[in-house]
Design brief:
By secondary structure, the protein is of the alpha+beta class. Helix content is about 35%, strand content about 25%. It has helices at about 15-25, 40-45, 100-110, 125-135, 150-160, and strands at about 5-10, 50-60, 60-75, 80-90, 115-120. It has a five-stranded mixed beta sheet with strand order 1-2-3-4-5. β2 (about 50-60) and β3 form a beta hairpin. It is globular.
Length: about 160
C-alpha cells in the first residue's frame, strides 16, 4: 500500500523546491518570470531569519509536491493568518491525495499557530484548481482586487519624495 506523508522541508530539498517552482511557473505560462536559483532558495527559504516555510509531500519516499507559506496579520481580527504562496503537485501524482494532504497540514499549522485565516490566490483561468478549492469548502474573495509593486516601480516609489 502506498504511503503519502507531508514533512517540513529542509535545505536538502532546495533543488526539489526549485524544480516544483519552475514546473508551476511553466503550468501558469510564466516560466520567464522565475528568477529563483538554488542559491536564492537556500539563502531565503532556509535562512535562520526566513519569513517563509515549506512542506514537501512524498509518496513512498518520492517528492511529489510542495507548499510554500508565510504568516500575515489581520488588523480587524488582531490575529495572524497563514498565507499559502505556492501549492504544487506533479501532474503524474495528481488525484492521489497529495494536494489535500498538503492543504490539511497547512490548516492544522494555522490552527496550532492560532491563525484566524488560511488564504491563498489562484489564477482566474485555472478552473481545475478553483474547482478543487471550492470542493473542499474554500470561498473565493471576489470582492478584493490584488495590487502589486515590483522591480523598478517598487524602487522608484520607495525612493520618491
Amino acid at each position: 500500500m502506498s504511503q503519502l506523508i507531508v514533512r517540513e522541508a529542509g535545505i536538502q530539498d532546495a533543488n526539489t523546491i526549485l524544480k516544483f517552482i519552475t514546473d508551476l511557473a511553466i503550468y501558469e505560462k510564466a516560466e520567464h518570470e522565475v528568477l529563483a536559483t538554488l542559491e536564492t532558495i537556500e539563502s531565503s527559504l532556509f535562512a535562520k531569519d526566513s519569513h517563509a516555510s515549506a512542506l514537501i509531500c512524498e509518496l513512498d519516499g518520492v517528492p511529489v509536491g510542495s507548499a510554500i507559506y508565510f504568516y500575515n496579520y489581520s488588523t480587524w481580527l488582531a490575529k495572524p493568518g497563514l498565507f499559502l504562496e505556492d501549492l504544487y503537485v506533479s501532474p503524474e501524482y495528481r488525484g492521489k491525495g497529495a494536494g489535500i494532504k498538503l492543504l490539511k497540514t497547512l490548516a492544522q499549522i494555522a490552527l496550532e499557530k492560532d491563525c484566524a485565516r488560511f488564504e491563498w490566490n489562484c489564477l482566474d483561468w485555472n478552473t481545475p484548481s478553483r474547482e478543487f478549492y471550492e470542493a473542499i469548502g474554500a470561498k473565493s474573495q471576489d470582492e478584493w482586487v490584488g495590487y502589486r509593486m515590483t522591480g523598478q516601480t517598487l524602487v522608484d516609489f520607495a525612493k520618491s519624495e
